[in-house]
Amino acid sequence: MGFNVEDIRAQFPILSRKINDKPLAYLDNAASAQKPLAVINALKDQMGTSFANVHRGLHTMANETTEAYEGARTKVAKFLGAPKPDNIVFTRGATEALNLAAYGLAHTIEAGDEIILSQMEHHSNIVPWHFLRERKGAVLKFVPVLDNGELDLDALKSMLSSKTKIVSLVHMSNVLGTINPIADIAPWVKAVGAVFVVDGTQAAVHMPINVVDLGVDFFCMTGHKLYGPTGIGALYGNAEMLEILLPFNGGGEMIEDVFESHVTYNDPPHKFEAGTPPILEAIGLGAAIDWYSQFDPKDVHQHEMAVYYHALDGLRDINSFKLIGDAPNKGSVLSFNLEGAHAHDVAQILDKYGIAVRAGQHCTQPLMTRLGIHSTARASFGIYNTLDEAERLVAGVKKAAHFLS
Ligand SMILES: Cc1ncc(COP(=O)(O)O)c(C=O)c1O
After folding, report:
1. Gap from CA of 173 to ligand 1 centroid (Å)
2. Which residues are catalytic?
3. Is the pLDDT of residue 173 over 60?
């Protein structure tokens, strides 16, 4: 393995915290990841040494801050394999990126046009498309999920037709961990002339991404799950699609000229970034990408999956344990239930032992309905998690199973 986990942990001050007198085991990375000193210091340095609004000024600090902000765009473009920085629109997160894609494509949709999603989507890749159903009369279709948590690819193929205008799918599920074969799906989507939007929120943290090789039109990511700050994300769009997309925020910076009679727009990506953007957050995301890029994504994946399987092996000994999501190609998300126990109770008991996991629907109500469950407990592993933490999770869940059954 190309890195030492203890060295990595030493770069995250928060990981030395105690929770309920126990060392913190932070296993809630799919919700949000902790921040390394490289990111904390980058934000401090920018605020403490050079800060101004971007693009508008002629003074030194305005230029320095603009350079840092635009530099972060270049880093995101490189990270996602985008041809140019101009393919990257900064947003306030993945949710805003998906809303921008849906809103900005609305003018291409007519009543009866079909938008294909899947049953494993996060609400942020469902609700914006419901807006199009409500406003434009679009028809939403959901690709079924198989019992093991895989996407039903045969069903997807049979759902695609000349009526399909948009396909929007998650790359890696935040509940099942399933990694969908986006590069295989892209040619099917293109064959019917539809736009392909991909929710890469989880995937961008766990595997190398190249949006050109994937063959997607739009791809979104979020900073805070990638060890960066909150309030920042990005929408990649290919050049042709960014010309078609309409902006949904109007204001300063996104315009070329404003007259009493009409307005003309700036070029992408600025056309989509009205007002003062999340400057510090974008710079923090750039720092997170710099930090994360020192590791080989294959090493990170191998490490995270080793922790995942170590936990899973131990949990399988518990009679009431049920794994949710067992696709052959998956990332380090371990959703589970204990028969007869509520996921919230499991999470609360684990917190007593300093172990942070999430419990609930994880913003995926259609998936919960499909699986016939109300909620899951979810441990999600990141770069700094250890085999020892996996063992503590197993011991904690064993205690929860004992108390709750
Ligand atoms: C798969 C997926 N899509 C979208 C989102 C939304 O991301 P954000 O809350 O950063 O906008 C999440 C967050 O959990 C997610 O897991």
Report:
1. 10
2. 363
3. yes
Mean pLDDT score of the chain: 97
For domain 5-29+296-404, the question of CATH label 3.90.1150.10 is answered with: yes
Ligand 1, from 91, 122, 175: best to mutate by most atoms within 8 Å of Cβ? 122
Contact (CB, 8 A) for 167 and 153: no
State the amino acid at position 79 in one-letter form: F
pLDDT-based confidence at 2, cuts 50/70/90?
A: confident
Confirm or reject: Cβ of 358 under 6 Å from ligand 1: no
How confident is the model at residue 184, as a pLDDT?
98
Cis-peptide, bond into residue 13, ω within 30° of zero = no
Question: Going by CA atoms, what residue is nearest to atom 7 of ligand 1?
Answer: 94
Q: Alpha-carbon distance 194 to 105, whole Å?
A: 12
Residue of 202, 209, 361, 367 to test ligand 1 pocket, by largest number of atoms within 8 Å of CB = 202
Residues 14-56 have pLDDT tens digits of 999 999 999 999 999 999 999 999 999 999 999 999 999 998 7
Asked if 204 and 179 touch (Cβ cutoff 8 Å), the reply is no
43: three-class secondary structure by DSSP:
helix
Domains 5-29+296-404 and 50-292 share a fold: no
Domain segments of the chain: what residues? 5-29+296-404, 50-292
CA-closest candidate to residue 357, choices 345, 341, 368: 345
In the block, which residue shows the tokens 């000349």?
A: 162
Q: pLDDT-based confidence at 1, cuts 50/70/90?
A: low
Residue closest to 351 by CA, chosen among 21, 13, 32, 9: 21
- C-alpha 374/C-alpha 66 separation (Å) is 47
164-170, strands of its sheet edge to edge:
88-91, 233-237, 218-222, 195-199, 164-170, 114-118, 139-143
Please state the rounded mean pLDDT for residues 95-105.
98
Q: CATH top-level class for 50-292?
A: alpha beta
Report yes or no on whether pTM surpasses 0.85: yes
